[in-house]
């Protein structure tokens, strides 16, 4: 697939691909004015139809055992890797990320899918509460699917993030409608359609279109749950819309992750490479990227120098260019926001160090920003307080462990964090005090996420958990069936 090929995707509803009259024009974030492709723009009627189809498919799908569903899902995922190179190229062009990251995006989806299938034997497992003194009943606690589920994924890692929810929702017995990101729907739609075509009609559907035409995916009384990954503002809107029908939600929202380097931290090439990736992967556009670096004052120079050495080698450019190490930001608005944060830090007198050269020629008008370190900024600056979602990072010294913990927790967010230390006891002590849903030790970021473990945020980073059996239970309801024990009841009467 060449970088000039125009990609076209349709809707996939009820086991069939469907075109629409209108289409979304998908722009290349690196080349202003260039179109990557066109995605079908669903009407409200298309969306209503998708909901009805998914609702009609639910009884048969939910009546299968989890093992039977897992068998069908295992067949559906076969061959996904065959198109991975093309999927990665499409995602790079519509998202801006380097091609290798697009390839990993698809790979993580497959891994998450197969990990979910590995726990299929736990899905239908309940428990029995036996007769007890004063309780003359035995009670079976069971789990049942919810119904039709909407899954909404963001632009940055859409296929991988879909893998944190989609297989779990299906395995739990639900039928699903996926809404890919508005500005980067092409690769995700292609992947879903290939899988959905191998499942019973209506079990898995995908609709693309303008947000204003998608409201029923959240507000309809036939939607049992919405799983949303995106911004805090987006999460609040989803929650408000879902409240109209008391639809339950899982929200995985933004982060302002703190990485704490204690006095005894190991700061060698291995750990610095990990830190660099944790900050600058996907041009800083990952919710669980490190967003604030707190370093013991005695180790600041080592961390700054280590990141500087790596940033001096950065090559800004087109994601499909093999020499490129950092692509553009996805949207012009995000570029403007990151530039504002950098400008604010400079105006406040902060030590701002920028790296790399902005591309020229056909890339000159792309959404490129030079990566930057902001050394010892005032903690009230936007680069510290807000989620940058771009290639700029504040590095802040501290003197005591308690000071570092307090600073790390002094934020609206609670997605993830990390502790860097040679002492396992200190790692556990500090890590257990961080107010966030996930903590790494001597590492940080999406590349080291345990895909078996529950993941989700605290505070304004959202609620609910994805992945693992906890992620499956999030797509189920709990039911109790109590049976009177005549002997126990008689004994109680005496």
Which keywords apply here?
6-stranded mixed β-sheet; Aldehyde Dehydrogenase, Chain A, domain 2; 7-stranded mixed β-sheet; 18 helices; Aldehyde Dehydrogenase, Chain A, domain 1
Shape: globular
- Termini separation (Å)? 81 Å
Q: Which strand order spans the largest sheet, edge to edge or round the barrel?
A: 15-16-17-14-13-19-20
Architecture per CATH nomenclature, i.e. the level-2 architecture of the largest domain? 3-Layer(aba) Sandwich
Rounded Rg: 24 Å
Low-pLDDT windows of residues: none
CATH names the topology of the largest domain as Aldehyde Dehydrogenase, Chain A, domain 1
CATH superfamily of the largest domain: Aldehyde Dehydrogenase, Chain A, domain 1
Number of helices: 18
Beta strand %: 15-25%
Strands, total number: 23
The major pleated sheet works out as:
7 strands, mixed
Number of domains: 2
List the helices and strands and how they pair.
Elements: E1 7-9, E2 11-13, E3 16-18, E4 23-27, E5 35-40, H1 44-63, H2 66-77, H3 84-95, H4 99-117, H5 120-123, E6 127-129, E7 137-145, E8 148-152, H6 158-162, H7 166-171, E9 175-179, H8 186-196, E10 204-206, H9 216-219, E11 223-229, H10 232-242, E12 248-252, E13 257-261, H11 269-280, E14 290-296, H12 300-311, H13 332-347, E15 351-354, E16 372-375, H14 382-385, E17 392-398, H15 401-409, E18 413-414, E19 416-420, H16 424-431, E20 438-441, E21 458-459, E22 462-463, H17 468-473, E23 476-484, H18 486-493
Parallel strand pairs: 1-5, 8-9, 8-11, 9-10, 11-12, 13-14, 13-19, 14-17, 16-17, 19-20
Antiparallel strand pairs: 2-3, 4-5, 6-7, 7-23, 12-22, 15-16, 18-21
Helix pairs in contact: 2-4, 3-4, 3-8, 11-12
């Amino acid at each position: 697939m060449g970088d000039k090929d125009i990609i076209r995707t349709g809707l996939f509803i009820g086991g069939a691909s469907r075109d629409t009259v209108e289409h979304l024009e998908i722009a290349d974030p690196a080349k202003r004015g260039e179109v990557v492709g066109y995605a079908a723009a669903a009407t409200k009627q298309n969306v209503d139809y998708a909901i009805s189809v998914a609702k009609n498919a639910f009884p048969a799908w939910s009546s299968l055992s989890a093992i039977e569903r897992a068998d069908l899902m295992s067949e559906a995922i076969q061959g996904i890797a065959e198109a991975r190179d093309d999927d990665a190229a499409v995602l790079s062009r519509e998202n801006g990320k380097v091609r290798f990251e697009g390839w990993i995006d698809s790979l993580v989806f497959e891994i998450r899918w197969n990990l979910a299938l590995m726990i299929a034997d736990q899905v239908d497992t309940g428990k029995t509460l036996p007769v007890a003194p004063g309780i003359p009943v035995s009670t079976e606690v069971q789990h049942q699917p919810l119904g039709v589920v909407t899954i909404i994924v963001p632009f940055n890692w859409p296929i991988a993030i879909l893998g944190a929810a989609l297989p779990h929702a299906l395995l739990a017995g639900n039928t699903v409608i996926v809404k890919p990101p508005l500005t980067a729907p092409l690769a995700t739609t292609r992947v879903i359609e290939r899988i959905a075509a191998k499942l019973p009609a209506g079990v898995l559907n995908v609709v693309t279109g303008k947000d204003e035409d998608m409201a029923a995916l959240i507000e309809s009384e036939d939607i049992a749950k919405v799983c949303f990954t995106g911004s805090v503002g987006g999460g609040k809107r989803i929650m408000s819309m879902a409240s109209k029908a008391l639809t339950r939600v899982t929200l995985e929202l933004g982060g302002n992750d703190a990485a704490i380097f204690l006095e005894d931290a190991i700061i060698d090439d291995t750990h610095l490479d990990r830190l660099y990736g944790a900050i600058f992967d996907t041009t800083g556009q990952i919710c669980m990227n490190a967003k604030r670096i707190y370093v013991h004052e005695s180790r600041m120079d080592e961390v700054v120098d280590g990141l500087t050495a790596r940033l001096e080698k950065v090559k800004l450019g087109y994601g499909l260019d093999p020499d490129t190490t950092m692509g553009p930001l996805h949207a012009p608005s995000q570029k403007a926001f990151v530039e504002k944060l950098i400008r604010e830090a400079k105006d406040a007198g902060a030590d701002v160090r920028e790296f790399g050269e902005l591309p020229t020629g056909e890339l000159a008008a792309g959404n490129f920003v030079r990566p930057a370190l902001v050394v010892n900024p005032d903690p009230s600056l936007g680069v510290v307080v807000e989620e940058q979602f771009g290639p700029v990072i504040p590095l802040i010294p501290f003197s005591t462990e308690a000071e570092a913990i307090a600073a790390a927790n002094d934020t609206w967010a609670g997605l993830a964090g990390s502790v860097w230390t040679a002492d396992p006891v200190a790692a556990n002590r500090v890590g257990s005090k961080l107010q966030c849903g996930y903590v790494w030790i001597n590492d940080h970021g999406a590349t080291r996420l345990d895909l078996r473990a529950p993941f989700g945020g605290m505070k304004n980073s959202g609620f609910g958990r994805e992945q693992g059996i906890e992620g499956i239970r999030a797509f189920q309801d709990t039911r109790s069936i109590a049976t009177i024990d005549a002997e126990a009841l008689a004994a109680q009467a005496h």
